[in-house]
Design goal:
heterodimer; A: about 375 residues; alpha/beta; 20 strands; globular; B: about 400 residues; eight-stranded mixed sheet; six-stranded mixed sheet; about 25% strand
Chain lengths: ~375, ~400
């Protein structure tokens, strides 16, 4: 909890003042040897014109007059890619994101638990993460609605208060001291809720949220890890005709056929070197089957997860996509984050080499056209 | 690694399966015990497309292009059917403890084909099982009949919603007491805490359902379980009442008579004390683990007094019965339980029928499994010895003509 600006912040403000209304008003022209705009579009060399925190122009589209006027930042031989997007995290605020007395709380908003000064948020820029979906805890069967948040220079902010509905069937959602105590009970709790939403048997703000899932206006993310949980989640999705995103999905290879058939997407947890081979190969397996997936889990291990997936057969480009464009797509935010197309937020990371090569280092992280991490490049004018 | 292998094996098995199933396979030379029919020495079992084409003696004509498996010296029986089987060792997930009456919960929703209990069953020659929710609720939910092999529960199903499990005795009340000095606001501070309370919960549930029917009330959305109870009252669904001790069996019969529903008595350890009542009530009895010397899972509170001779006594009195492994975690393999009953005087043919065709009939799945006859699923076991011989080993177990276990 940091309610008062730190020395560093004060210094930053002073620097800002000294360099004039630089970042707010003046365009910034960022150039580097390679800029990945989107998974299928890399410019070598590349240029971005940033205006008001957004990508205003890319490459040759930049008008020459704007190019002249802009402040120029040249990252030389570096590689620039869109910032990482985490599609699911409780970001150290788990205690505040699970209403403990009752497991069915679909109408709670994670945005209302969000502490923009939380100390864990300060580390995000250093990890290359430029936006994340702060999600209700998987300890509740129907936890609530996730929010899109972004790190900032001194504190973070909420970019979208209402994303998807977060549901959970994993062990953490079952508790011997309140309903449900069992997987059977957890399945029934969701089935009863969806059935009531479908038949209009019950009103209330909680059922209204489930109704949004049924009419397609809100996506549902379901935490499900082992076979029985995944199967139950897929059964519910089939019964009530929605296309969920499954979170965790450690045993996804056992239900691969159904994932394809029901057009389900996956948010994977952290990969660790000591895991079973089948788990490490899961991203490659999903890619071969055509199941869309992204990486999430421990923010500190996000990049390493992607690297491990590459080590176990995942295509390098797909791995990068699973950190940027794909999670943005799952969150329905592809127009503003996950790529550097015209109109998107200027959220990007600068790397000394290939971002998914562990010998490359992170040189800078920018969010909304503001540099949060790293030094000014030598060639700044 | 293990999972990948399992997956690969499953993939190859199913690929091999479709090829193997088209082919005609003849199992020849074994003593065939078809269940519900006379034994055939030097018999011939012909299988194609996962179904039994024919069963007969040595003179049965063999198709020209068939592959022949020599089973001389072996015994072939139908795959065994366990009418009361624990679908998982993880009992927490089969018992929803937030409510005592949960008739609409389906155990099928959380079965895992890779659960070790299914592998153990196949190893013992069991190819079909009846799984019910756990025994910690008064009215636990809906059971289903499934095969012990399949890539997902939907493909294993033989019959959905075969039963509604009701539990008598002290087990549902366990844990429901105010811990001295504990938190009174806990959800476990509730009825039942006694045997009386267990019966009260069940009676109240059926009373409410019956009242609904009498008043012709519209289907109740807020109580989905009530529709299930109505089905039981209308005779569309059979109750399986788990009742181990003498007094619980009597209570189970009384409750069924009071509301006029049909019930099976599950895990009836004390059946030998109430044979007359069971015969009068015309109920089928599931004998959970005849080998049991004490009733497990209830800390001995139920005080049941199982006897090895119960099966014989039931047979003599003409009470239909089925041998199962029940909810007893100390149960032996199903075939060993049948052996134990035979050891205590039950005719071997009756003992085998009690783990094959009888449970299949009870569950209404006998058109597909439970005996060896043309047109039925090719679910069978090749035993090294007569299955009731203590040395008998299930050498090959086939489900739908596919070899799912061999040793």
């Amino acid at each position: 909890m940091r309610r008062f600006p730190s020395l560093a912040t004060l210094a930053a403000i002073a620097v800002n003042a000294a360099f004039g209304a630089a970042l707010g008003a003046q365009d910034v022209l960022v150039s580097a040897a390679h800029i990945t705009i989107a998974p299928d579009a890399t410019l070598s060399p590349g240029r971005l014109l940033i205006r008001d925190g957004k990508v205003a122009f890319v490459g040759d589209e930049i008008p020459s007059e704007a190019r002249q006027r802009a402040r120029k930042l040249d990252y030389g031989e570096a590689t620039i890619i869109p910032g990482f997007v985490m599609a699911q995290t409780t970001m150290g605020q788990d205690q505040d994101l699970a209403e403990a007395a009752f497991a069915f709380t679909p109408d709670l908003l994670a945005a209302e638990a969000f502490d923009p000064w939380h100390e864990d948020l300060a580390a995000l820029a250093g990890l290359g993460i430029t936006s994340f979906a702060l999600s209700p805890s998987p300890r509740n069967v129907a936890g609530g609605i996730a929010a899109l948040c972004k790190p900032g220079r001194d504190h973070a902010r909420t970019a979208d208060r209402e994303l998807h509905l977060q549901l959970s069937l994993i062990g953490a959602a079952r508790d011997q001291n309140r309903a449900p105590t069992s997987l059977l009970g957890a399945i029934d709790m969701l089935r009863t809720g969806f059935r009531d939403a479908k038949q209009g048997l019950q009103g209330g703000t909680d059922i209204a949220v489930l109704r949004q899932v049924l009419d397609g206006s809100r996506r549902a993310f379901i935490h499900a890890s082992d076979y029985t949980e995944l199967n139950a989640a897929l059964d519910l999705a089939k019964e009530f005709a929605f296309e969920p995103v499954l979170v965790g999905a450690a045993e996804a290879e056992k239900v691969l056929g159904r994932l394809v058939q029901q057009k389900v997407a996956i948010v994977l947890g952290t990969l660790r070197p000591e895991m079973r081979l089948a788990e490490l190969q899961l991203p490659a397996t999903l890619a071969r089957a055509g199941v869309p997936f992204c990486f999430a889990g421990d923010p500190g291990q996000l990049r390493l997860s992607a690297v491990l997936a590459i080590r176990h057969g995942l295509d390098r480009k797909l791995a990068q996509q699973a950190l940027t464009r794909t999670p943005a797509l799952f969150l329905g935010q592809q127009a503003s984050i996950g790529s550097l197309r015209q109109g998107c937020a200027a959220d990007f990371t600068v790397w000394s080499g290939d971002p998914l090569d562990l010998t490359s280092s992170l040189l800078a992280t920018w969010v909304d056209g503001v540099r949060l991490e790293g030094d000014q490049p030598a060639g700044a004018r | 690694m293990r999972l990948t292998l399992v997956t690969l094996v499953a993939v190859f098995a199913s690929a091999a399966n479709s090829a193997a199933q088209d082919k005609v396979t003849v199992y020849k030379g074994a003593r065939i015990l078809p269940a519900g029919a006379a034994a055939i020495d030097g018999g011939v079992l012909i299988v194609q497309n996962g179904k039994i084409q024919s069963v007969g003696g040595a003179s049965t004509p063999l198709p020209a292009d068939a592959s022949i498996v020599d089973c001389t010296g072996k015994t072939i029986t139908p795959g065994l059917v366990d009418a009361s089987f624990r679908g998982s060792n993880n009992t927490n997930d089969l018992n929803e403890q937030s409510d005592e009456v949960t008739p609409h919960l389906r155990v099928l929703d959380c079965l895992d084909p890779a659960d070790p209990v299914f592998r153990a069953a196949r190893r013992g020659g069991v190819t079909s099982v009846h799984v019910m929710p756990g025994t910690r609720n008064v009215i636990a939910g809906l059971g289903c009949a499934v095969k012990t092999w399949g890539s997902d529960p939907a493909k294993m199903v033989l019959a959905r919603d075969t039963s509604l499990r009701i539990v008598m005795g002290s087990e549902p009340s366990l844990g429901n007491r105010a811990i001295r000095g504990g938190r009174v606001e806990s959800m476990y501070y509730r009825r039942p805490t006694t045997r009386m309370g267990v019966v009260w919960e069940a009676r109240k549930a059926f009373y409410d359902a019956k009242e609904d029917m009498t008043l012709n009330a519209p289907p109740s959305g807020s109580a989905p379980g009530r529709e299930i109870l109505k089905q039981v009252l209308q005779g569309k669904l059979t109750a399986y009442t788990t009742a181990r001790s003498e007094q619980d069996i009597r209570t189970a019969l009384r409750l069924a008579a009071e509301f006029g529903y049909q019930t099976v008595i599950d895990d009836a350890q004390d059946a030998h004390y109430v044979i007359g009542e069971l015969a009068d009530a015309k109920v089928t009895v599931l004998l959970g683990a005849p080998s049991a010397t004490a009733v497990s899972g209830t800390a001995g509170r139920d005080g049941a007094d199982p006897r090895g001779a119960t099966a014989v006594l039931l047979a003599r009195a003409g009470v239909p019965f089925v041998i199962t492994t029940g909810s007893n975690p100390d149960a032996l393999d199903l075939v060993r339980e049948a052996m134990f009953a035979a050891r205590n005087g039950l005719l071997p043919e009756r003992a085998l029928d009690a783990v094959t065709i009888e449970p299949a009939r009870l569950l209404g799945i006998d058109a597909r499994v439970g005996s060896l006859a043309a047109g039925k699923d090719a679910d069978f076991v090749i035993w090294s010895h007569h299955p009731l011989d203590p040395a008998a080993l299930a050498e090959t177990v086939c489900i739908d003509g596919l070899e799912v276990q061999s040793q």
